[in-house]
Structure formats: C-alpha cells, structure tokens
Amino acid sequence: MFHSLRTLRPGALLAALAVAAPAFATLSAQPRASDDPAMVARARAIHERVMTLDTHVDISPANFQRNAPNYADRLPRTQVDLTKMEEGGLDAAFLIVYVGQSAELNAEGFARAKATAMEKFAAIHRLTDTIAPTRVGLARTAAEARAIHASGRKVVFIGIENGFPVGSDITNVRQFHALGGRYMSLAHNGHSQLSDSNTGERDNVWLHNGLSPLGREVIAEMNKLGIMIDISHPSKASMLQTVAITKAPIIASHSGVRAICNHSRNLDDEQLDAMKANGGVIQLVAFNSYVKCNPEKNAMRQAAIDALRKEYGVAGANNRDISAAIAALPDARRNEFLSKQEDITARRYPADPAATISDFADHIDYVVKRIGIDHAGISSDFDGGGGVEGWRSASDTFNVTLELVRRGYTEEQIEKIWSGNLLRVMEQVEQVARAAN
Would the pLDDT of 22 be above 50? Predict the structure, then answer.
C-alpha cells in the first residue's frame, strides 16, 4: 500500500495514510472441504428452523428513501439490507438509532442529538410501514417478533445507541419508547450527561464516576417503560452501578470477552459474573478489533507513529488533518516520512491477521463456559465497522450457525444463542414494566 502512496499527488493522499479501511466484500457461505456433508446438512436445517437475531446493525437514513435505491434492494455499500438478510437467513435485526457523542452537554447539543435520532427513527418506520411492509415488520415485544417471524417476514427492532438525545428531559425516554425503541445505552464513545463511557480508560478522566443522577433516573424510567438497558459502551463502573439498581435484566448489545481481547469495550470476568447474577445476556460482537487484539503491540505501534509524526511536524486533531499535514510536506520529506511509517506498520509492528468466525466463536464459548448458555447471544455491528472473515455481511449468516454446529452445540443451545436468550430478557423487561404500571 505505502509504496504506491508515495507516488500520489499530495491532494490524493487518503486519511492518515497509515491504515487501510477493511474491505467488506461478501463471502459466500461455503463449508470447509473437511466438513462432513451430513453435519453441514444438519446445520442448514437448524439455521432454517431457529430465529436468527443480530442485535446491532447500524443504518444511514439515506438508504431508507422511497424513491431511490433503499433497504429493500441489494445495496452495494452496505453489509445488511433485506435482500442480504433473505440470502443469508438472518431473520431479525435491531436497527440502530445511533448518535455520536459531542462535548456539547447543553441545550443546543441535546437538540441536535435528538434531531439526528428522530431522523433515524423515521427512516426505520418508512421501511416497515411503506417501503417493504410485506417483507418486514417492526416488533415492539418479544411476542410480536415471534409472530412476524412465523409470518415469513423479517423482524426489525429498534435499538438506541447513546442516551445523549435524551438531553435533560426525561420525557424523551417515553417518546423514544413510543417510537419503538426497545434498548438504549446511556453513553457511547465519550461521556454523556447520563453516564461515563468506556473511553475514560484511555486517560483515566471521568465525568460522573459511573452513572450521573439523571442517568439513574433514566434507568428507573426504562424499567418502568420496558426498555432494555444496554451496557456495551458505558464504563465498567457505570455497568456495575446499573446492575445494582435495575429491577430488570440488562444486555450488552455488542461486546466481547476481555479475557480474550483486552479492550475497554469488552467485559471482564467480574462484569460477566454480574451479568449472570442479573439474569442478563451479552451479545458477542463480530467486530475485528474486539474479537482479536494485541493491545501491547498496538500501543508500541502507536507510540512509534506518534514519535515519527512529532519528528516530522505532522499534527492534527483527526485523520483528515493528519492527512493534510502529510500532504503538505515537501516531496522528499514526505517520501521519507511514508517510508519510515511503512517500516513501523508493515515490519516492526505489523497488523495481526484478521479475526475469523472461529475467533468470534471463541468468545461465545468463553461466555457459555463462564456463566452459562442462557447468557450468550450474537451481534455483528455491521455497517458500523463489524465483520470477521466468514461473516462479512448478512448474506454470510449461515456460517455462524455452521461454526456453532462444528463446536458441538445442540439445536436447543443454538436457538438460545441466536435469539432465545435475548427474547427471554426482553420478556422479563416487559414483565417488570407491567408490574410498575
């Protein structure tokens, strides 16, 4: 990659010029040559019978317009759409109302965040109400999900990633529930007004030391309304405080196992044990850098790149700024910089091979062995950076079931992992809400 970049005009240099974005070309669901044909046939039959549910798929409202290529079509740049779900036998998905975290914890920031959220709610409703109502239905309860699945349609749920759009007005929680939101995390990457984020581990700077007082009120409101509490992005302190005060089981909508991959987005053994005691479920995520990581090597690579940038006066607040700074170097100095950068990233600290579907299944195995079959689920984080070799799009979903069959999981266990555990938690959250009203 870097040899060819040296010859580009400065204006053509890509962001950061250091790391290539992963290519998400769809892989066909093909068994291994060593697989027993009878085992593959059994896996296909199981895959057909169970409800396969992915709890985290990001969306762009641009793909939900009526008079343009949309989610009902085969979209070239998405990992998920209805066609890919049909091809891969992915029966259900939480489409995500995601709003990135900003530092503007004020009325203006809250208003912009809510507007972004409302645009995504509207997009999902267009899909289920007008774009493809004969192919997909919006589920607000576990029972509705099962009924939609039984009708032969795909099931869509709505998850809310980041409570930032709630702002300081707790009545927004009720509004989001009325629009179909059935889980919500209180933070994303960066501390919100409700909760600290896992990202506080980078500099040990915290805003609330867990949950804020308003965050605690929001948890009580979510229990009252029947919204599952998602702890995938909030900090460990926030997660443990949530477990202590919630009246209903919780979920981690897209996280991994920290004992396998030491990343702040993953759950350590103490958190897994707390999840078991709470009765919740962790939806293991097929996100490469949460499935397979080498934090020590990554830290050394980043330190070497930071030192190189300092040496050459390359600085910027983001990849775009850094790219511009590299492009602005004189030709000879730029070529020298890129050569040294290549030495760091390709030879001294090369990236590890991409995570595979087998690496992903190791996280499922760990949770099952540590806290039991009733607490493991599946998520992809597709169209938000997710994907591992073997499961790069919804079209490849059968490969997940096949890997579980390879590992000896029974149909009953696979049904629990794919959807049973999540729907059980959803039903228990609904019961807590009914009892509160």
Answer: no
